[in-house]
Amino acid sequence: MKKRIALLLCTTMAIGMLSGCGGNNNANNTADGNSDDKKSGETQEISIWHDGDEAIMQVIQDQVNEELNGENITVKFEKKTGLTDQIKLYGNDSENGPDMYMYAHDSLGTFVEMGVLSPITDVVGEDAYQNMLPMTLEAGQYKGEQYLLPIYYETLLFMYNKDLWEGEVPNTTEELYEYMTAHTDTDAGTYALVNQHSTAYNVAPVINGFGGYIIDENAKPGLNNEKTKEAIEYNKKFADLEADGDYNTITTLFNEGKAAAIIGGPWLVSGIKDAGIDLGIKSLAEFELPNGNTLKPYSGVQGIGVMKHAAESKKDALEKVFTALADPKVGIALAEQSNCAPANQLSYEDEAVAENEMITAMKSTAEVAIPMPNIPEMSVMWGPAESLLAAVNKSGEDIDAAADQYQQEAETAIADMQ
Questions:
Q1: Which residues contact 396 (CB under 8 A, 6 or more apart)?
Q2: Rg of the chain on CA atoms, in Å
Q3: Could you tell me if 335 and 356 are in contact, meaning their C-beta atoms sit under 8 angstroms apart?
Q4: CA 257, 171, 357, 295 torsion: positive or negative?
Q5: Phi and psi dihedrals of 278, rounded to 5?
Q6: pLDDT of the chain along its 418 residues, tens only?
Q7: I need a surface site. Which of 2, 316, 405, 417 has the fewest CB within 10 A?
């Protein structure tokens, strides 16, 4: 997920702001602007652009087309590298652009401000998505409107090697710190826990849990907020016992058995399995901070939105597509075939989904997780936030002075966007 964030940031900066068939099916408009779908007997294809895992998209496509059997409607997912740029170019193009798109929710504000999206309520009633987890619905909202139908989501987890971890996993962060102190030998290069301790996404569970924030809903940076600074100071003592490394470094340490646990997400599972590790998982929501709150990680939600031109010309077909996408069977298929955590709460009534340790851990985390901010200004916050963390954790700089410095940098970057 962090890699997707970095890619979005680079793309956004490049365009001056900030996971089928691309052709339009030439549906004719009725006089009132609503969809006049394909004539009886003809199949109408709805194109959905994405930049995600093609195997996952295939699961969704197959399941939705099965649900649409008999409706003379099919959906076709088409992968587009650099989706932000592609939608910037073709989002309003009814001939060459998509009808819908699927991507991580943190890009939503950028797309809405481009003027290419319609709220999904323009084509489908709220009852269609009433069973979605509240956090996932929140992720798809922008300025009070629901723009995305959530499909699945990811959160950070506490992942541990059952063969290396001794005893029960603690329930408080202070107990975890005590375990780390007793089981870490930095000179030997062995660790109780590894984490990207100066990466903002990985420190967000502590910042959010302390009541701080990287940026608020009004696009105000919070790097010098008192609660944010308390969280960063608290994180530092854990950072001192964790390897100083990037994503690849800490992942290698865990997969090679040099670390008993890692803070990571479902994107790590395939490598962990290849390493032959007996993996245990615990929700970050099960770790209590000294203030009585739990760790509160960010969550990334994959959702589907609708292009404005399609909402105006293909409303009837899109309503059926959204209804099919919202069926709990889609979430069940994603969980069983791709190990994704469904956004639909009803999907968890399936026995196989309910017994999936990682998915149920993410569902527990979803009760406290905070959706990554989806405002365009978030894209320029990662740099200052991570510079602040590096200054404190790696260079030992004074927290107050560093926080003020990078708060100013963040404010300047946001002002430059406007």
A1: none
A2: 22
A3: yes
A4: negative
A5: -80, 100
A6: 444 444 343 334 333 333 333 333 333 333 334 444 455 568 999 999 999 999 999 999 999 999 999 999 999 999 999 999 999 999 999 999 999 999 999 999 999 999 999 999 999 999 999 999 999 999 999 999 999 999 999 999 999 999 999 999 999 999 999 999 999 999 999 999 999 999 999 999 999 999 999 999 999 999 999 999 999 999 999 999 999 989 999 999 999 999 999 999 999 999 999 999 999 999 999 999 999 999 999 999 999 999 999 999 999 999 999 999 999 999 999 999 999 999 999 999 999 999 999 999 999 999 999 999 999 999 999 999 999 999 999 999 999 999 999 999 999 999 998 7
A7: 417
For the chain, give the number of residues: 418
Go through 145-184 and write b for each residue having 16 or more CB atoms within 10 A of its CB, e for each that does not. Answer: ebbbbbbbbbbbbbbbbeebbeeebbeebeebbebbeebb
- Cβ atoms within 10 Å of 18's Cβ, excluding its own: 24
Encoded tokens for 108: 């939503």
Enter the pTM of the model: 0.88
| Torsional class of 24: left (φ above 0), alpha (ψ -120 to 50), beta (otherwise) | beta
Distances (CA, A) of 405 to 105, 182, 198, 267: 29, 36, 17, 34
